[in-house]
Write a structure and sequence with these properties.
This protein is mainly alpha-helical and about 260 residues long. It has two domains: about 15-100, no CATH class; about 110-250, no CATH class. Helix content is about 55%, strand content about 10%. The strands form two sheets. Strands 1-2-3 form a three-stranded antiparallel beta sheet. Strands 4-5 form a two-stranded antiparallel ribbon. The termini are far apart.
Length: about 260
Amino acid sequence: MDKPLSFDIRVPLSWNALSQEQLRFLLRTVVAVQSAQGEGTSVASRTRAMVASICLCRWNGIEVDGYAGDSFMLSVAKTLFDCRAAAFAEAVGLMAWIGEIPKFPVRLDTGDGHSAADAQLSGVSFAKFLALDNLWQGYLATNSDDRLRDMAAILYDADDINPSKEELLGVFYWWASVKQLFSNLYPSFFRSSDVAESQPDYKSLQKGMDTQIRALTKGDITKESLVLASDCRRALTELDALAAEYDEIKRKYPDYAK
């Protein structure tokens, strides 16, 4: 008796497991499905399965030739396979992570032909970090692609950049994952300095930025240009240490902090 034919479905288990080609295709698929469904940047559960199904078929060279009862008739390398819907659904379920922010920053290496900064912002100046974070707050308040486009101009070091929809979505996931990473790396600073993300206004954003700069310069304005030009990771490390020191003072001397 002939042995039944079988094939394996390769399923990436995280954002960080994707190749650049896979990442770009995933983002492009999310944009296409959301456009059809009229959704924003987050991936709703009702479209996640559709996006995952499209991606898994593309990445595994699968074509759907038809349906029969509770099974799919799949074609892989011109060979037909009978695949139970439940089995394919199980593979789709392993890609639930596409509805979450990446645990570690991921980004497209290029945007509109321009090379990206380091995924975790190593080598990015503190001045650029402040500009990016202000634009991010503006995006959260307005949901405007213009803010993401302005962020892309900084992250890809190209004022004339004209990113595609998938590249703008890539900026969204990149910065959201950077913020998540930095909140874990610098917990004292981000806990004490977070601006309310619902409706941030220019005055509060400017005040927060000025406070950060003043903390690093110790009030010496002659050091401001050096601080702004410093690596953002180094600046945030110092700000986190200062915030932790202040938290300790408040704990020991609660009346002092009032």
